[in-house]
Specification:
Structural class: alpha+beta
Distance between the termini: 52 Å
Number of strands: 27
Strand content: 15-25%
Radius of gyration: 34 Å
């Protein structure tokens, strides 16, 4: 047994020495091999880290198998629509009505407008209003405080570690006082560990739900769905049973609301959140599958590259194989040596790839807007990494190993070697496969960027330039009129309005409108904006009929409404001015019609919009933003400087933060730009690695035909003629790859574009550009090797004859 172990160890040492000597003798090819695999492995690892982050989202909660989010479901515009929001009044009613099924029910509402103050430290960050049971339902670790009581008192606040440090520095935060906005004082009752990157609850603080009433956000309307409700079912209660019991609870409490509810399990929150006609059809899982495919393809391209480079120098290894076979080496021994080389190459590439991933992570985090980490402390990570590299090494070395080990020693020593002839040669197939993926990546990248450009160029219906908005905070709500007067009288702005949300965003919508002639069974969704005056004038909207809402001139405009063209078409009014519309038990009268404009996502058709007068006066809590049209007669910088001074005068406790509307609108394209950037990077990497493989095949061909080249030169062939002879077959491979890649990419991108109702067509020039770009790069790669072979002196190549 001991002797066998020693023999095995000696064999491994010998394999390692031979492999290392092979690397040393072929430094350039070894460097290309290792770098190609390193790039492929690093790309795959980055994508796999992202995939793991997404697939493990919110899977760490102790009671995760019993936690559900409440979704709403209703027939809107003739389709069954589902959305992840529910009425504010639902949670306590669920818990009291179904105590045998519901162990806990909690509500959350995202907040981004609160200013947290401690001494001289002011901090605006994101948090949640949450019911007291939030910390016991979800398993977010409290470093200090008690999860059961941390949110039990009305003016308590729970901070994350990072937020506590920013507010209090090295001072003990527990028991300290934090002021929210201008007057509400909160006591720190808990410190949360900073949120992990793979949870939907990205927050810096938690405030008790009871504060909702104090800020005027409480809403008892069963038709209003704009907060999140989560339930923890009791053990043994199935999702199907709960859905059946809970389904009609909204109608039971308000028969006039045509909405049902159902439960969405925590395991599907991140990946399965897209519904079609009331049924779940997917979501981010499609993107995750795409990432897995891309990771696999990039790694496969790198492995193919190794295979081609491994066989490119086969003639130099052939005599070694022949001699080893003649002295008794078996096929298994030879396979072990070659697989040893490929595995060693994979591990060296893996070390380089790990360093590259660590360096690339900050850039990649910014690109995907997510914080990823390499789990060095996890033993599972190292086990998976070793297994991953072993599989990669074996896959990459499989073809070269079997190819070289299969040589006939008699043929080798007589100078006869295998040659690759015909269109179905394995290396040619591999190169076609590589470039098929590379060309498909390039086509997809071009289509994505064309779609972005197409949507960015659409008419949005209003004038974005010189529009600036700020969110209403602190004293701004109470002192709005004075701020508005100062902005206009100082010449900073030509007009100022306040609305419930920026015009680029959808913060309010409803399907509960009724009007004369409407089908009583139909429910149509309208986007809602609130404004008290000059909405169209300030934004540059075209007024088509009637007038704007102006609460100062027309006090009755608190019940006035302005329709967009799409809303008018939906309602079917021939003479809209003076018509009455009913919603939430209130009558509205139409005073005007404006041109359609884009709000929400610019990739979708224009939605019907209603602009409504303010429900309450004078300090309507539903107003969330102030929008100014800057005076074009002065510089933007000077206008912003004056604007900052005016807001500091009336709202000194809050830093003035502003947003240009065109910049805010441009952020709508970030998701698609991210996809385009990823596609561009991986297209570039795939082309680069594929060209390394092409270089290997060109080198292989040049070696096999080196004597033919010498004879042709002796017979008078020029360098250009020989280079063309050696290159034309490879360019034909690129053409074949293009013929396969073009329809595949066309099919995939047409499916991708179906998700965008407002979309571009795929033009012929995209295929032409992708093909020409790939052919140009490939020609440069092949030409370099071909010219090198063509310039070799015939005397050197023919000397052996």
């Amino acid at each position: 047994m001991l002797n066998r172990r020693r023999q095995y160890n000696d064999m491994l040492k010998n394999y390692f020495k031979v492999s290392w000597r092979s690397f040393s003798r072929n430094k350039i090819f070894s460097a290309i091999n290792i770098s190609g695999l390193a790039i492929g492995i690093a790309s795959a690892v980055l994508l796999l880290l992202w995939i793991h982050n997404e697939t493990s989202a919110d899977r760490f909660h102790r009671n995760g198998d019993r936690i559900y989010e409440v979704y709403s479901r209703s027939v809107i515009d003739g389709r069954i629509e589902c959305w992840g929001a529910s009425p504010m009044v639902l949670a306590p009613v669920l818990q009291s009505t179904f105590p045998q099924q519901v162990e806990q029910a909690v509500r959350t509402n995202w907040v981004g407008a609160f200013i947290l103050t401690s001494g001289s430290h002011h901090l605006q960050t994101y948090g949640f209003l949450a019911d007291p049971g939030f910390l016991t339902m979800f398993s977010f670790p409290l470093i200090k405080g008690d999860a059961a009581s941390a949110l039990a008192t009305p003016h308590s606040i729970v901070l994350t570690e990072k937020t506590a440090h920013r507010l209090f520095g090295a001072t003990e935060p527990m028991g300290q006082t934090v002021r929210i906005d201008s007057n509400a004082l909160f006591k720190v009752t808990g410190i949360l560990k900073d949120m992990p990157p793979n949870t939907r609850f990205q927050l810096d603080y938690l405030v008790p739900w009871s504060y909702t009433k104090e800020v005027g956000w409480e809403d008892h309307d069963w038709a209003s769905t704009h907060i999140s409700t989560y339930v923890l079912l009791r053990p043994g209660v199935s999702e199907a049973r709960a859905d059946n019991d809970f389904r009609h609870i909204v109608r039971a409490n308000d028969p006039g609301v045509n909405t049902d509810i159902f439960l969405h399990p925590i395991s599907k929150w991140r990946l399965w959140s897209e519904f079609e006609d009331g049924k779940i059809v997917g979501g981010e899982i499609r993107f995750i599958r795409l990432l897995m495919l891309v990771a696999g393809l990039i790694l496969l391209i790198a492995c193919i590259n190794y295979m081609n480079l491994g066989t490119a120098r086969s003639m130099r290894r052939a005599k070694e194989v022949g001699i080893r076979k003649m002295i008794g080496a078996g096929k298994g021994s030879l396979l072990g040596r070659f697989f040893g080389e490929s595995v060693l190459t994979a591990f060296l590439a893996g070390l380089i790839a790990l360093a590259a991933v660590q360096l690339a992570l900050p850039w990649f985090d910014r690109l995907i807007e997510c914080r990823l980490e390499i789990p060095y402390a996890s033993p599972w990570f190292w086990l998976l990494a070793i297994g991953f590299l072993l599989v990669t090494g074996l896959l990459a070395g499989s073809y070269p190993a079997f190819y070289l080990a299969a040589y006939n020693p008699v043929h080798i020593l007589k100078g006869y070697f295998k040659r690759v002839n015909g269109w179905l040669g394995p290396r040619k197939v591999l190169v076609v496969l590589q470039f098929t993926f590379a060309i498909a990546f390039i086509i997809c990248t071009l289509v994505i960027y064309k779609q972005i450009s197409f949507v960015r160029a659409r008419d949005i219906g209003y004038k974005q330039d010189h529009l600036v908005f700020t969110f209403i905070k602190g004293e701004v709500r109470r002192r709005y009129e004075a701020i508005r007067q100062d902005l206009i009288s100082s010449g900073v702005a030509t007009d100022v309005i306040r609305t419930n949300s920026p015009v680029t965003d959808i913060w309010s919508s409803s399907g509960d409108y009724a009007w004369a002639g409407k089908d009583t069974l139909a429910r149509n969704r309208f986007i809602e904006f609130y404004s008290d005056h000059s909405f169209a004038t300030t934004l540059g909207l075209k007024l088509l009929a009637g007038r704007e809402i102006d609460i100062r001139r027309y006090p009755d405009d608190s019940s006035a409404i302005v329709l967009t063209e799409s809303a008018l078409r939906l309602m079917g009014f021939k003479h809209p001015i003076g018509q009455h519309i009913r919603n939430l038990k209130k009558d509205w009268h139409v005073v005007g019609v404006v041109h359609d404009f884009v709000t929400g996502t610019p990739f979708y058709p224009i939605s019907p919009v209603l602009i409504k007068g303010p429900i309450r006066q004078p300090d309507n809590p539903w107003f969330g933003t102030i929008t100014c049209r800057l005076n074009e007669r002065q510089s933007t910088a000077a206008g912003i400087e004056k604007m900052t001074a005016i807001f500091a005068k009336y709202n000194p406790d809050y830093p003035f933060e502003y947003h240009f509307l065109d910049d805010f609108y441009a952020e709508k394209f970030e998701g698609e730009k991210k996809a385009g950037s990823l596609a561009a990077w991986f297209a570039g990497l795939s082309v680069f690695i594929s060209c390394l493989g092409l270089f290997g095949l060109a080198a292989y061909t040049a070696e096999n035909r080196i004597k033919e080249v010498g004879i042709r030169k002796v017979l008078g062939a020029s360098v250009i003629q020989i280079a063309s002879l050696l290159s034309k077959d490879f360019l034909l491979l690129i053409i074949v790859a293009f013929g396969i890649a073009a329809p595949l990419a066309c099919w995939y991108m047409n499916n991708w574009l179906r998700d965008y109702p407002y979309r571009v067509g795929i033009s012929w020039w995209i295929y032409a550009l992708a093909g020409a770009l790939t052919a140009f790069i490939a020609a440069g790669t092949i030409g370099l090797q071909a010219i090198r072979a063509a310039m070799t002196q015939p005397a050197k190549t023919l000397r052996a004859e």
